[in-house]
Amino acid sequence: MACNYVASFFCLFYIAFISTMLAASGDLDSKVPTAATFREVQKMNVKQTRAWRPWIVTQEGGYQTGGYTVEYEQGLTFATVRGAGHEVPEYQLERAFIMFTYFLTGKSLPSLQRHE
Question: How is domain 20-104 classified at the architecture level of CATH?
Fold first, then answer.
């Protein structure tokens, strides 16, 4: 993976955890917008392994979109959290918990789509 100056924070975090990284962004974040975070992830030059898709949460007997996610080689996942600002758990505690639980157990975020 090529790490450049702009993406150095993400690279250092990724290297520190050796094989996995979750770059998460609240879609209402005005301090570090989702598009800026996504651009930094793209600068890491890692091949995409699973396309953009919505990830879901189960609520009141149905499904709701928790956000959107894309996966890359070497254990890198980028995910947005719908309805969250800069500090995701402050705005969407349940969605943040689900996202981190799946990440820490090494699973892809839940989706209604088949795995490509």
Answer: 3-Layer(aba) Sandwich (3.40)
pTM score, two decimals?
A: 0.78
What whole-number distance in Å separates Cα of residue 79 and Cα of residue 66? 9
Residue count of the chain, please give it: 116
Cα distances (Å, whole numbers) of residue 27 to 20, 68, 81, 94, 116: 22, 9, 6, 15, 25
Distance of CA 30 to the CA centre of its chain: 17
Nearest C-alpha neighbor of 41 from the set 1, 81, 90, 94: 1
- Considering only CA atoms, which of 83, 81, 85 is closest in space to residue 103? 81
Domain locations in the chain?
Answer: 20-104
pLDDT at residue 53 tops 90: yes
